[in-house]
Amino acid sequence: MDIFEKIRINRGPLGRYAKEAEGYYIFPKLTGEMGNRMYFKGKEVVVWSVNNYLGLANHPEVRKADAESAAKWGLAYPMGARLMTGETDQHLQLESELANFVQKESALLVNFGYQGIVSGIDSLLSRHDVAVYDAESHACIIDGLRLHLGKRFAFAHNDIASLEKNLERATAIAEKTGGGILVISEGVFGMRGDQGILKEIVGLKKKYNFRLLVDDAHGFGVLGKTGAGAGEEQGVQDQIDVYFSTFAKSMASIGAFFAGEKDIMQYLKYNMRSQVFAKSLPMPIVEGALTRLQLLRTQPQLKEKLWHNVNKLQNGLRERGFTIGNTQSCVTPVYMYGSPVEASQLVYDMRENYGVFCSMVIYPIIPKGEILLRLIPTADHTQQDIDITLNAFSEVADKLKRGAYNSEVIMR
């Protein structure tokens, strides 16, 4: 079969709905300045789908730093990969400050979160090594593991007994191959909002010989006393061997970093193909990240406001009888039950008639019959935003319960 013909027949689990959903449910366009209120299809909506946790996207100091750096350096400087011509004092300064912030010896900048973790996993593992990872790990982790030529085992999500069973299997293999074991988890699982069981995982280090990699994209900057993330929150930051996070959440930017022992960061610096053969991060991104990191350190009120809003929203949902699962983070999932048609009608109703924009997740990402509406509170949200949203949820839940989204025409 011609490869293009195969693609035309099978567009993939999301692509199959492109004709009906693109531009509204998939690839929607939000316009206006980044914030708690934006525009969708010409109407102002309360936005709960942007990972601008601390409201830094439009913070005046951030906007000023970004603009001044772009005016000074342009977007091209430095040209070339860091290995060749892309190394600067600012890149090194940012790495040093990031390492200090997450309480590690050293850090390494990478260009993107997704690309970075894929390439980092590929670099850390040889074909003799064994990877053991949480079954609900983000797609970037799964893609990194797909490059691994050795054995890999998934343990049931946040299940310590399952992890130990798979560590036993991994240990037996590693003893034969002479390799090592890398356990991979997340600080916060971005779909359901629960934290990885990091404290329980590191407790197994006394019994098994492994290293721990934690992707803390949703924990960095917002969890822990200083914002160092889920490891700090659970009191085990020093037991995380390789810490990873992106700038795309609390920092409202582009880029990412690894942190850990100096020797390991040096190894990654010289062996991560996605960095060795890629252009260095542009100077405005680097200097902008330095400003953002400074705000994380010096303006704790941003994190306090975020958590005030998180607690108001999550407690309000619980008080109204909604199920939000075991979230231990800003990520706020709301679970309902209904068909894909009902889910589509409900979300349309929320956006068009209540002015509330949040993301919808249905089968095949979650089990059939479930509807997951995912909300991301930020420091920018107001009490009015929260009240509007809680009232909207109460009303659409009532409509769903009485079958309105099957019997009434909501979409017009």
How does this model look, in words?
Strands 4-10-9-8-7-5-6 form a seven-stranded mixed beta sheet, with helices on both faces. Strands 1-2-3-12 form a four-stranded mixed beta sheet. The protein has a three-stranded antiparallel beta sheet with strand order 11-14-13, with helices on one face. It is built from 16 helices and 14 strands. The two termini are 41 Å apart. It is of the alpha/beta class and 412 residues long.
Short characterization:
This protein has 412 residues and is α/β, with parallel strands linked by helices. The protein is 42% helix and 16% strand. It folds into two domains: 159 residues, Aspartate Aminotransferase, domain 1, CATH 3.90.1150.10; 241 residues, 3-Layer(aba) Sandwich (Aspartate Aminotransferase, domain 2), CATH 3.40.640.10.
| CATH 4th-level superfamily of the largest domain | Type I PLP-dependent aspartate aminotransferase-like (Major domain)
Total number of helices: 16
Q: Helix share of residues?
A: 40-55%
What count of domains describes the coordinates? 2
Question: What are the segments in which pLDDT stays under 50 over at least 5 consecutive residues?
Answer: none
Number of strands: 14
Q: How is the topology of this model organized?
A:
Elements lengths: L2 H7 L8 H4 L8 E2 L5 E4 L2 E5 L12 H14 L15 H13 L4 E5 L2 H12 L5 E5 L4 H8 L4 E5 L4 H18 L3 E6 L11 H6 L7 E5 L14 H5 L7 E5 L9 E5 L1 H10 L1 H4 L6 H16 L1 H20 L12 E6 L2 H14 L2 E2 L1 E3 L8 E6 L7 H19 L2 H4 L5
Helix pairs in contact: 3-12, 4-12, 5-6, 13-15, 14-15
